[in-house]
Amino acid sequence: MTNISSNDIIKAFKFRHACKEFDRSKKISDKDIKFILETARLSPSSFGCEPWHFVVVRDQELREKLKPVAWGAPLKLDTASHFILGLTMKAPMTKPSSDYVMHIFKDIKQLPPDALEAYTGFYKNFHEDDFQLDDDKKKFDWAAKQCYIPLANMMTSAALIGIDSCPIEGFHQEKVEKILTEDFGIDIEKYGLSYMVAFGYRKSDPARPKTRRNMDEIITWK
Ligand SMILES: Cc1cc2nc3c(=O)[nH]c(=O)nc-3n(C[C@H](O)[C@H](O)[C@H](O)COP(=O)(O)O)c2cc1C
User: Fold this and answer.
1) What is the full DSSP assignment across 62-111?
2) pLDDT digit string, tens, across residues 44-94
3) Whose CA is nearest to atom 31 of ligand 1?
């Protein structure tokens, strides 16, 4: 591990803000966007099930299609160097013993047979008893929680190398999913949209300093 100082990390957290408009003349290099995406790929998830997929929207025409259904995004769609859709797997993918879950356990995690059986049992028990994910909406929301971890990691890693970002939930889920099927060729039986995230370089510094509650309001030490 290289030594990055806590001071530098806090500087990056302060540098990161929800960037409203990017400098459209500045593009993120391939190397840097791949670095940002790599931090998404390496993110942790419950049971290691990685219930995510990311679509990097390079095509300007496709970006235009999103504008009418994403009130939080138009200026970012126009100016961001890179614009990413954060997709979350739906219940058919994440339900216990689905083909996808077994692919993760067998092919990706390469669990030996006895561990595979135990892990599959824990996963089923977790869904049915611990978290009671007994309908498709609950399963989707649980998977979506995992998908916000790569979102945070991407934004932080971007900030650490001086790249700005904006997370976006300002869109109509049903309307956007219609566009994802019709124009992006995404199977919405399998995937839903949790968030969008724009990356680029700020056009100007934020108008207001960062505001946050104090530590003593958010932390309880026992
Ligand atoms: C999940 C999520 C969704 C957000 N959606 C939007 C959005 O649609 N449009 C927008 O301009 N900002 C959006 N934001 C940015 C927040 O408003 C912003 O992070 C918050 O006010 C704190 O400000 P800061 O990020 O500049 O520190 C979103 C933030 C998060 C984490």
Assistant:
1) HHHHHGGG-TT-HHHHHH-SEEEEEEEE-HHHHSTT-HHHHHIIIIIS--
2) 999 999 999 999 999 999 999 999 999 999 999 999 999 999 999 999 999
3) 167
